[in-house]
């Protein structure tokens, strides 16, 4: 095993105060001896997830300590409380939150080296082999134990279940015919799965810390956006082989993290939000598809965005700013600002027609309110107070309501149903009192919907979307996002894109 490179004797200021270089040395040795075989040289990840500050930023230090002490149930992570003393464990907790002495890299050679083909698509049947309606399947991410479920959306039965990479995040994306689905994990692993044959086809690690992915309208390309390294990676959608990496460098030469990537079907392009330079990028995939970015100046850094229904404009927010900006993608100009308080979660917003006009509604992860905006005038129509900040919002063209969660705070077991015409909360459900209820996705016809009980002893609950009666409860460990194939490939009104 390669010796870890250590920082010279220095004093590191951390959340725990000051740590001597000796403690860092000890922690580095402990890492090498006890962690490296699973978590990789330079903490890049291996059988276990990457342990870099970027990978751990969402986890509280106490939680890191608890996992080292007690292990993680239903995973290979063992308990170290009887192996390491409390000072060693504290040392490791500190050490893992510092950048490694050797800055991590992930270049084309490493991407190619991580690529594996798991099945030969040309030898697999081209029609669905599972007997269910292929356009009414659901892909369900079971976050508590890092699994994916494929669910029959008519019978509400699990057709297949398989282990995913650590922490799949963002929406899985589909090929235009709905046969293939693409997943991105926060650790940069991209997986290609065949829904007709219920088989994994290929995997590749496109980055060390990834945001999300998008698939081109023609189904030829997958674009991956990374925080670490700050880059875009274009993959061949047929087998995930590497086509091109594009460093995310702004016009001023500064490297940026990528906040999010989406496909814009009517534009034949990918749209990219950057987190550290004030630019939006458009990468055309029509014609010669050279993926040269068109760099559009923005007024602010972008964390999150959503499109107008015709994909001509995007509505974007920065978590640092107090508001949103509308950018016209044709002219490349910022059209207007929008008063959006708190931290609107635009990527999880939804739109519908009200009195013949498109409106857009977004949840807010720091304030208990839903902002409803007129897509034509960009004026705020209403702020609907909720029982607490929420993450996700969903509807369907055949649903009278938009469903939104109260993800944070004492009322996190509540779900609000907002009447799409009156903009009032018509119902508040508490499907499992005391347990977080979140994220909804409708069947293709909108008759039923699936809701997550985001808990270790959680469940998927199927509701009749008209009578609001519970139809079925399927036990699951922290089910998070659910995605209906038909709604996704049709970019249906009410669902996320
Ligand atoms: Fe997400 C989607 C960003 C934290 C679960 N989240 C997305 C998307 C973005 C995003 C840009 C859209 C991607 C797409 O459609 O491909 N998420 C962020 C953040 O910036 C934030 C606040 C902080 C972070 O560190 O990333 C964040 N997200 C979370 C969580 O803590 C959640 C609740 C649990 C988890 O899995 O990490 C979470 N995000 C989700 C889910 C989606 C998502 C389930 C897909 C929503 C959909 O319906 O399409």
Automatic annotation (TrEMBL):
Its EC number is 1.7.2.1. Residues 1-17 form the signal peptide. PROSITE patterns: CYTC. It is an enzyme of class 1 (oxidoreductase). Keywords: Heme, Iron, Metal-binding, Oxidoreductase, Signal. The keyword Nucleus does not apply. InterPro entries: Cyt_c-like_dom (IPR009056), Cyt_c-like_dom_sf (IPR036909), Cyt_cd1_C_sf (IPR003143), Haem_d1_sf (IPR011048), Host-pathogen_enzymatic-act (IPR051200). Residues 22-100 form the Cytochrome c domain. This is Nitrite reductase. It comes from Pseudomonas fluorescens. The lineage of its organism: Bacteria, Pseudomonadati, Pseudomonadota, Gammaproteobacteria, Pseudomonadales.
């Amino acid at each position: 095993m390669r010796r870890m490179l250590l920082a010279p004797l220095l004093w590191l200021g951390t959340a725990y105060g000051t740590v001597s270089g000796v403690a860092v040395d000890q922690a580095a040795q402990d890492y090498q001896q006890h962690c490296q075989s699973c978590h990789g040289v330079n903490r890049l990840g291996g059988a276990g997830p990457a342990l870099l500050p970027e990978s751990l930023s969402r986890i509280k230090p106490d939680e890191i300590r608890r996992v080292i002490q007690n292990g993680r149930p239903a995973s290979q992570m063992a308990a170290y409380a009887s192996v390491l003393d409390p000072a060693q464990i504290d040392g490791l907790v500190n050490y893992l939150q510092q950048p490694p002495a050797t800055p991590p890299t992930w270049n084309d050679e490493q991407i190619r080296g991580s690529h594996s083909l798991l099945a030969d698509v040309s030898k697999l049947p081209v029609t669905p082999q599972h007997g269910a309606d292929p356009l009414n399947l659901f892909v369900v991410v079971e976050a508590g134990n890092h699994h994916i479920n494929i669910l029959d959306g008519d019978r509400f039965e699990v057709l297949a279940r398989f282990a995913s990479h650590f922490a799949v995040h963002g929406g899985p994306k589909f090929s235009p015919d709905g046969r293939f689905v693409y997943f991105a994990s926060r650790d940069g692993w991209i997986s290609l799965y065949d829904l007709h044959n219920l088989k994994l086809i290929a995997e590749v690690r496109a980055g060390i810390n990834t945001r999300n992915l998008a698939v081109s309208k023609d189904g030829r390309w997958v674009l991956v956006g990374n925080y670490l390294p700050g880059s875009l990676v274009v993959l061949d959608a047929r087998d995930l082989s590497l086509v091109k990496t594009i460093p995310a460098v702004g016009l001023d030469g500064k490297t940026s993290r990528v906040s999010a990537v989406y496909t814009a079907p009517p534009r034949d392009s990918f749209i990219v939000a950057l987190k550290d330079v004030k630019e939006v990028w458009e990468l055309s995939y029509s014609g010669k598809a050279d993926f040269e970015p068109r760099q559009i100046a923005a007024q602010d850094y972008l964390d999150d965005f959503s499109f107008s229904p015709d994909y001509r404009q995007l509505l974007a927010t920065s978590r640092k700013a107090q508001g949103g900006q509308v950018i016209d993608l044709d002219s490349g100009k910022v059209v207007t600002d929008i008063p959006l308080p708190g931290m609107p979660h635009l990527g999880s917003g939804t739109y519908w027609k009200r009195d013949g006009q498109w409106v857009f509604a977004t949840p807010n992860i720091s304030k208990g309110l839903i902002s409803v905006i007129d897509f034509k005038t960009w004026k705020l129509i209403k702020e609907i107070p909720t029982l607490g900040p929420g993450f996700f919002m969903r509807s369907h063209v055949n649903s009278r309501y938009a469903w939104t969660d109260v993800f944070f705070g004492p009322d996190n077991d509540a779900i609000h149903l907002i009447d799409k015409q009156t903009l009032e909360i018509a119902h508040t459900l508490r499907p499992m009192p005391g347990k977080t209820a979140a994220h909804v996705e409708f069947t293709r016809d909108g008759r039923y919907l699936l809701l997550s009980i985001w808990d270790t002893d959680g469940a998927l609950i199927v509701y009749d979307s008209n009578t609001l009666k519970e139809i079925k409860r399927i036990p699951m460990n922290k089910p998070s996002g659910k995605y209906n194939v038909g709604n996704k490939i049709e970019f249906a009104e009410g669902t996320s894109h």
